[in-house]
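INFO  loader      accepted 1 record
INFO  loader      residues=83
INFO  predictor   begin
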Amino acid sequence: MATVLKVFDKWKEFLAERVSQAGHAGMSEETISKLAFQIGEFLANKVDPENEQERVLKELWDAGDEQEKLTIARLMVKLVDKG
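INFO  predictor   done
INFO  writer      dumping tokens
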């Protein structure tokens, strides 16, 4: 896990692959967003930020309530699913 998170672009690539796989498996956009939320919770609780981008995301995540965290998760999915 730490290897994937060392470089923010690698993290976005990792997330994009998972979003693509979920879409191909027939998961709805809502389900994908909920999974992204769960991943965000895991990362916020278990992984120390290793670069500025991860640190900013963690600070935003920690500052948000559950609805705001879900919005961040949806935005991350959009960010990686645009291509």
